[in-house]
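Per reviewer request, we include the raw input and output of the structure prediction for the construct analysed in the revised manuscript.
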Amino acid sequence: MITEIKSITEISRHLENIDVVIFDLDDTLYPEREYVYSGFDAVGELFPKETDLSRKLKDAFLAGRPAIDEVLTAEGLMEFKDKALHAYRFQTPVISLYPGVKEVLKSLQGYHLSMITDGRPEGQRAKIRALGIEEYFEEIIVTDELGGTEFRKPNPISFTMIHDKFGVPYERMMYIGDNAVKDFKAPETLGMKSLYFKNPDGLYYGRQ
């Protein structure tokens, strides 16, 4: 069963008969756009200030274009693409939780709190460290660490791993995510409860 929510702070209304609460990360606990902009700032630091590269990358991103390729090409800097990608992927992110999220995580400490997140391990782990939330979770699965991108959602393996770890029936597990395209296929098939955070700030808002 999938229920739509407009804020993470609404979770407390949906905890009846739930023992395991699983969160997505990007655009669920914090705005992924902040990570993207932080990465563009890290790339911009590689080049002279007068190139204004960070702003150009953000403008291209907001226009829905492949920012790094487009801007480096336009600036005649494509020879530095590998260095730019490294700076982006291995940045120390400047990001922050959505309002109320830390209070929600603290309030859920009586539950088996877990996280399932897709993406490059170095980036996802850096986000978690930057947000200071690792201590709240009993289990954190970065799906790429299971063996590659094929383990990303909607692959159900990460959900079954958490089910096996805690020995809780699927119907007593709940997942919270923001991506209607991929987040809820596995939980729905497994018989879990799901909360769809319909996040207008999210990068995937409006996609079905």
